From TrEMBL:
Keywords: Auxin biosynthesis. Signal peptide: none annotated. One of its GO terms (molecular function) is tryptophan 2-monooxygenase activity. It comes from Runella defluvii. Its EC number is 1.13.12.3. The keyword Cell cycle does not apply. Residues 45-452 form the Amine oxidase domain. This is Tryptophan 2-monooxygenase.
Amino acid sequence: MQRRDFIKHTLLATGAVALENCQPKDPYAPRKYEGQIAIIGAGAAGLYAGYLLEQQGANYTIYEAAEQIGGRIRPLKGLADFEVELGAEKIRGSRSTLYDWAKESGASLLPTSGTDYYQIGTLLRTEAQWNTDLDFRLAMLLSQQARAYSGNETTLAQLMETTKLVAKVRHIPDALIANNYGTSASRLGLLGVAEAEATWSAGRDNYLLGNRSLLSLLEEKCKNVIPKVVLNKQIKRIDFTNSPIVLEDAQAQRRFADKVIVTVPLSILQANDIQFTPSLPEAKLTAIRNIGMGAGIKVALVFNRRFWEANTGSIYTSGSVPEYWVSSAGRSTSSFVLSGFVTGERAEVLSGQTSTVIIQNLLKELDTIYGKGTATAALTNAKVMDWGKEPFIKGAYSFPIPNGGGLLTRQTLSQPIQRKVYFAGEATHYGGHSGTVHGAMESGRRAVEELLRDVV
Ligand SMILES: Cc1cc2nc3c(=O)[nH]c(=O)nc-3n(C[C@H](O)[C@H](O)[C@H](O)COP(=O)(O)OP(=O)(O)OC[C@H]3O[C@@H](n4cnc5c(N)ncnc54)[C@H](O)[C@@H]3O)c2cc1C
């Protein structure tokens, strides 16, 4: 489908085009939904659902447990001379509303096009430089095969074992595939990975916003939605036995709604932090268990000089943090920032340490790569963001577990209940875009479409 057709189709599906264009007396015009809609969570999914409902003139309120909007999008001012993203940072692909919004807003979109460096032992080299090393080439080949895996279910770790990939390069597929998917090699189901890769349709290029944060972009586009957000309002119970639906918050205060869109992270559902009455259907409970979500830490290290090669894109290490990238590239000429991202088992280990210890150890690891004391001496500021410790997030993002049932399981997770309770959020995306901001937004759109379809 052409991009323009896709947008038109989407607008039609949400009723937006029909509503805008219809004459007042058009007998076929979709009716405006007059009921009260509650959205739980003001992350990308919840805000975009609000944006679409706002266009419909619908009555909605967004309840957000935290003291700020954005969820897993959280920029930090003051650490460097630009806003450092502690959560989502890259716009993944160019075929999404998120990308279009960035374009429309005039933001500078910086393609993440640098050269990647890989550590083996104490040496750091580019792919071209390592290419004479057979083990490196096998690690890269296996990473490629993992993305298109078919056969009996296996984890990435099992695949490395059965193909006898040598230990000194196993961190490479682990970083390129497992960490990228939000977990470690031993926990990632490759059938789910292959399915997600095959259905991914957003394009393969990644972009950083050069001159603004992701949150400021959402704030600009959702400026009419933000007044409808009630902060510090953790919803603890959703009773949809009767109409209206009763929502109870952490202070036992009650709110009422005719329809609810739940956008909280999968981990919040897994932890039973929201009690549903009647309880969720067995199929949905099984789906909640059959998708993974675990520890995730992002570390921002701010230096007073650049000690890495000027062309550096990502640095894949064999240490505690599988991947660093240069967050300051194109954004600053005086703050030099490496962002590190670690999930799964390694994130669990780091999570047991203090920020000071984590930073000291990461600097030591970078010093072994770049020369004694180099990174340590250049550090001016640092921040460790442990998403597993965030009470209303509890992890990084969802990933396919072995034998988890893949996209069908995500579809089951997304199923509305009794035309009253709808589900959005990145984990409910069953078109391959889970674990992303634009995927979260698309899930919000799907939930709004389902809700409006039930009304007409
Ligand atoms: C470190 C990190 C890096 C990432 N990098 C990228 C990237 O570069 N590019 C990309 O596309 N994606 C990235 N992602 C993934 C992306 O951030 C998420 O997929 C997306 O932001 C999820 O949006 P969401 O609306 O589904 O969930 P969330 O953003 O988690 O929003 C859910 C909201 O629900 C709230 N909530 C929870 N419980 C309750 C309750 N009981 N009552 C009321 N509110 C509640 C939460 O506080 C939260 O605000 C990254 C994620 C992490 C953690």
